[in-house]
Amino acid sequence: MKLTVWKAMKGQFNKLPPVAKADLTGKTVVVIGANTGLGFESVKHFAGMNPGRLIIACRSQSKGQTALEKLKTVTGYKNAELWTIDLADFSSVKSFADKFDKDGGRLDILVENAGVTRPKYEATTDGWETSLQVNSLATPLLALLLLPRMVQTAREHRTVPRIVVVGSELYHFGTIPKEVLKRGDILTTLGSAEYCTPKTMQTFYNVTKLISMFFVRALNARLDPSTPLIVNTVNPGFCVSELRRDLPAPISWIMAIMEAIMAFSTEEGSRQLVFGAVGPGALRGEYINQSQVEEASDFVIGPVGQKVEGQLWDEMIEILGKVDPRVLKTVDEYLSVSG
Fold it and tell me: From the record, what ranges are coiled-coil (predicted)?
């Protein structure tokens, strides 16, 4: 499909379905970026479904603790746990996965909600542009490191775990220049200081969400159909969020006006995260918008997009395999060579 700006704006005035619900008794739910915004609203919904464990994963220990106490007060749920993770630091992601390995518990739902946008180039300690690392590299890294535990959970408990990657309809407007696509190092080029000019950074968030879409599709394509694991990506829509807190004026002023006119509430946006995690229907590798499966963009499903998907997957696995060899082991044991 082809999304226009007008169609996207019009969709903001649709009435959204109520939040999906399920019985999560005995199950473990992990929500990344759970201390505020969409993440916190989603854990409030999950808490009402009686999960055995609800892990709220946050970058800040202090902010996470505040969110944990607030969750207990608002919902009465007492089995929430605070774990820390910083997706702008690969070592933090690896430590999170290590902790889960040692924890020995099941993992039924992983909601990868953390995401950032930056108005200018900022490098992480790992040497990548921050939003590209958080949105497009660390998010896949965590999913691949935790995938074996989720498959194990499925087999031991006869259930079908889900990985939910929080995307954005702005991926429709993400573009990668042809000269970059011709290179063998697309991600490396996109994450470089040379590429991330002030002009490029104005729409770079869209590109990171396009890469996330490709990751979800590529991962699903490499999962054997018999593997009891669902991977999908959801669009929360344009909603009240702290995502734009770092934008400079006057862009921040414009966005504030737009929020007042047409934004969904944070709670409404969180319903999409919950739908991806517990909603009905065949959701494998799908893009979910307003609680419905929606066809991906013409570019993504077209011949050029399919080629780019393969290129990005191969480069991503090479990069992440160097970050943590367990990624290569996951690919070798659980995924096919090609989709």
Answer: none
Query: Angle, to 10 degrees, between the axis of helix 266-278 and the axis of helix 37-47?
Result: 60
The dihedral built from the CA positions of residue 157, 159, 160 and 163, taken in this order, carries a sign that is: negative
The 10 Å Cβ neighbour count of residue 99 is 13
Identify the sign of the CA torsion 175, 180, 185, 190.
Answer: negative
CATH number at residue 156: 3.40.50.720
Report field, pTM of the whole predicted structure over 0.70: yes
Is 258 a domain residue?
Answer: no
Q: Domain residues for 301?
A: 5-9+20-237+272-329
126 inside domain: yes
Q: Is 278 inside a domain boundary?
A: yes
Sign, CA dihedral 281-283-289-291, equals positive
**Complete DSSP assignment for 216-273:** HHHHHHHB-TTS--EEEEEE--SBS-STTTTPPTTHHHHHHHHHHHHPBPHHHHHHHH
Cα distance between residue 100 and residue 202, in whole Å: 37
State pLDDT tens for residues 279-336.
Answer: 987 678 889 999 999 999 999 999 999 999 999 999 999 999 999 999 999 999 999 8
Residue 22: CB atoms within 10 A of its CB come to: 16
The long-range contacts involving 328-333, CB below 8 angstroms and separated by at least 24 positions, are 330/144, 330/145, 330/147, 330/148, 331/144, 331/222, 333/148
Q: Do the domain assignments include residue 68?
A: yes
CA 284 to chain centre: 15
Domains: count for the chain: 1
Backbone torsion region of residue 279, taken as left when φ is above 0, otherwise alpha when ψ lies between -120 and 50, otherwise beta: beta
How far apart, in whole angstroms, are the C-alpha atoms of residue 248 and residue 234? 27
